[in-house]
TrEMBL record:
Annotated catalytic residues: 520, 563
Record-given protein name: pyranose dehydrogenase (acceptor)
Quaternary assembly: Monomer.
SUPFAM superfamilies: FAD-linked reductases, C-terminal domain (SSF54373), FAD/NAD(P)-binding domain (SSF51905)
Molecular function, one GO term: pyranose dehydrogenase (acceptor) activity
């Protein structure tokens, strides 16, 4: 049942309570309720993924609008001023809707590398998280569907890599004017930019066709793929939306440890509070911002920090909210001939007729330019082994992991103020193995006050150096022969960086002005095998307590050296199985 007010919930006790109907939360809820005798209550702060404006979270090309601040789908967070970015305050998107950030993200689907997951296994102390074991859970979460335009996609992916799960994965719904040029560049410069048929195979490196979580011409989220098919048919599943978990309440002790089986919820700062009890566990899946916030509101964190806000300590776990990892992203744009069929006439608003025609085509049969997620290709790369950036050690998980990512878009994209006309190709650059760490801290003991968010971008010279290297690498790509006569010039704001004699200082100036978050927040309730550090153990159970497990991006001790959501789904599938085994359900 879908419920919108806590007073509508008929029962006060369930087997499991899941906090957050986001990416991971819906996987857990859907898998646990496969057994009809297991009763699950899900609490979600945001609203429905259907209804007013929901086209923005369905149409692939509208994905950048899905996460805009001040919409009903976003938490509307901002960061504290970022010192390394000229003290800019950045928008910090998080999905506030059924499906969480899987309903609002940019849909890029990358698992990461074999070494990324083997490092997880080592740090968490459990071989379940190794690449070889995770493949079955990746496959359990997704399946390949063919691109919307019906073209032959056999040279765009490897079917053996993909599975038979609910999330739909595909390449762009339409081909683009840059596809041939990107592929020709991989042939011309194969040493630096090799072609990779499917970078979800564990071998991440090289340039691949971009895979996105969409199918049938629409976004595929945990709400559409996992929740919607079972929500009305399973009597043992209740989902309460528009309701926030305000704190965990200690219900007693078990095995000499504080036990948390009771959850307090409310709809506004001053509204009545309700409590629900879990017979077995409360599973926090509120994401890398929400989960540490709930823990700290419950007295779980650094006791002296919490005391300053008048919160009594229940469990001392100083790493709650620490170790925030995010990846910085910066874009560059190039001017291409005005008769080029880029996506700009639609996305920049220059041609309202083209935009209207594209929307009616999408409404009629879910085909056409709106079935593009924006990028055509994505590449993951390593610094050269002799790079001075690696002289103090390699922060990546191993030789199959990346240090940076490049992607190419047949349209204007980036933080710069967009023009209203013209045709462009954009290049994005991402540091995928950053060494900077930020934090989530409480601003107040009021659960309806946003926490203090600090991604702490470019706190290390390594991160800044990798971004410079990524931009220089992208320049070698775009200055290669296949782009001659097509890329006419960089946009004026990128001209200094583009110049053959640009200095590193020029590149850094650009980076400081235009870097944004890619919104891959993770690590704020990290899993760790060491006693005395981290927040959860190898089974993702809260340390020094009983009754609480955490399944979301906050448990990643590192980010995969790619986009994280396929890994979040994979972890959630693995944990659903671990929980079923633990309770014999
Ligand atoms: C704009 C944007 C673009 C991104 N692009 C990509 C991409 O292209 N590819 C990729 O791999 N990753 C991308 N990411 C990251 C990816 O989407 C996330 O890492 C992933 O979805 C996180 O899953 P999660 O389960 O940890 O959290 P979420 O999916 O965010 O779920 C958390 C849920 O908990 C709810 N919640 C939070 N607090 C409370 C509370 N107190 N009470 C009740 N409910 C609560 C939230 O409303 C939300 O529904 C992007 C993220 C964003 C925001």
């Amino acid at each position: 049942l879908l419920l919108t007010d806590p007073s509508q919930v008929q029962n006060t006790t369930y087997d499991f309570i899941v906090v957050g109907a986001g990416t991971a939360g819906n996987v857990i809820a859907a898998r646990l309720t496969e057994n009809p005798s297991t009763r699950v209550l899900v609490i979600e702060a945001g609203g429905s993924n259907t209804g007013p404006n929901s086209q923005n979270i369905q149409v692939p090309l509208f994905a950048p609008q899905a996460s805009l601040p001040n919409t009903r789908f976003d938490w509307n967070y901002t960061t504290i001023p970022q010192k390394a970015l000229n003290n800019q305050v950045l928008a910090y998107a998080r999905g506030f809707v059924l499906g969480g950030s899987s309903s609002t993200n940019l849909m890029t689907w990358t698992r990461g590398s074999r070494d990324d997951f083997d490092r997880f296994a080592q740090v968490i102390g459990d071989s379940s998280y190794s690449w070889d074991n995770m493949v079955q859970f990746f496959k359990k979460s997704e399946q390949w569907v063919h691109p919307r335009d019906g073209r032959n996609d056999s040279d765009e992916f490897n079917p053996a890599v993909h599975g038979n799960g609910p999330v739909l994965i595909t390449t762009e719904g339409v081909t683009s004017v840059i596809d041939d040029r990107v592929l020709a560049t991989t042939q011309q410069l194969p040493a630096e930019f090799p072609f990779n048929l499917d970078s979800n195979s564990g071998d991440l490196l090289g340039v691949a066709w971009l895979q996105s979580s969409m199918g049938g011409g629409s976004r595929s989220s945990s709400a559409t793929a996992y929740l919607a098919p079972v929500l009305n048919s399973r009597q043992n599943l209740d989902v309460l939306i528009q309701t926030r978990a305000t704190k965990l309440i200690q219900s007693g002790s078990s095995q000499g440890l504080p036990q948390f089986n009771t959850l307090e919820v409310g709809q506004t700062s001053s509204s009545k509070r309700f409590t629900f009890t879990a017979r077995k566990e409360i599973i926090l899946s509120a994401g890398a911002v929400g989960t540490p916030q709930i823990l700290m509101l419950s007295g779980i964190g650094n006791p002296s920090d919490l005391a300053k806000l008048g919160i009594n300590s229940t469990v001392s776990l100083p790493d709650v909210g620490k170790n925030l990892i995010d990846q910085p992203i910066v874009s560059a744009q190039y001017i291409v001939p005005n008769d080029t069929a880029t996506l700009d006439p639609i996305t920049l608003g220059e041609d309202p007729n083209a935009a209207a025609a594209a929307l009616s085509q999408w409404n009629a049969n879910k085909t056409g330019p709106l079935t593009s997620a924006g990028s055509s290709h994505i590449g993951f790369f390593r610094l050269p082994n002799n790079s001075t950036l690696l002289q103090n050690g390699d922060p990546s998980a191993g030789p199959s992991s990346s240090h940076y990512e490049l992607a190419w878009q047949p349209e204007w994209a980036g933080a710069q103020t967009p023009p209203t006309s013209g045709r462009y190709v954009s290049n994005i650059h991402v540091v995928t193995t950053p060494t900077s760490r930020g934090s989530i801290t409480l601003n107040s003991s009021n659960p309806f006050t946003a926490p203090i968010i600090d991604p702490n971008f470019f706190a290390t010279d390594y991160d800044l150096g990798v971004m410079v290297a990524a931009i220089r690498s992208a320049l070698r790509f775009i200055k290669a022969k296949p782009w001659n006569g097509f890329v006419l010039a960089p946009v004026p704001g990128f001209a200094t960086v583009f110049a053959d004699n640009s200095s590193d200082a020029d590149v850094v100036t650009y980076i400081r002005q235009f870097t944004r978050s890619i919104h891959h927040t993770a690590g704020t309730a990290a899993a760790n095998k060491e006693q005395g550090s981290g927040v959860v153990d190898a089974n993702l159970l809260l340390k020094n307590a009983t009754g609480v497990r955490i399944v979301d991006a906050s448990v990643f001790p590192f980010l995969p050296s790619a986009h994280p959501i396929a890994g979040v789904y994979g972890f959630a599938e693995l944990l659903a199985q671990k929980i079923k085994t633990a309770y014999n359900i």
